[in-house]
Amino acid sequence: MAGPGDRLVRIGAIVFIIGAVATLVTVAPLFLGTDPFPTVVYALCLLMAVGFVIAGAGLLRSIAAQRRQARSAAGSTT
Questions:
Q1: For helices 47-77 and 6-32, what crossing angle results, to 10°?
Q2: Are 41 and 22 in contact (CB under 8 A)?
Q3: What DSSP string describes 18-47?
Q4: What is the chain's alpha carbon radius of gyration, rounded to the nearest angstrom?
Q5: CB 58 within 8 A of CB 5
C-alpha cells in the first residue's frame, strides 16, 4: 500500500532524472567541441532542483503522516 507521500517522491525522482539527463546533454557540447545549446535548454537543468524539492515535500508529508499515526496509536493504548 502506498503511503501519503510516496507519489510525490516518485514524481520528484522522475523530474530529477529528467533534469540530470538535461544536464548531461547540455555539458556534452563542451567536450565535443560543438556549438552550445540555446539558453532555454540550460533552464531544463533546473529540473534537478525542482525534482529534489518535490521529493523532499513527499518525504516530509510521509513523515507527518507517520507521526500522526504514531500519536493516535499511542493515545488509544492509554
A1: 160
A2: yes
A3: HHHHHHHHHHHHHHHT-PPPPHHHHHGGGH
A4: 19
A5: yes
Closest CA to 69 of 3, 20, 1: 3
Cβ–Cβ < 8 Å for 62, 9: yes
d(CA 14, CA 66): 24
- Write the CB contacts of 59 (distance below 8 Å, at least 6 apart in sequence): 5, 9
Q: Output the average pLDDT for the chain.
A: 89
pLDDT tens, position by position, 28-57: 888 888 888 888 888 899 999 999 999 999
Q: Is the pTM here over 0.70, yes or no?
A: yes
pLDDT of residue 10: 95
Q: Can you read off the three cell numbers belonging to residue 66?
A: 507517520
Amino acid, single-letter form, for residue 8: L
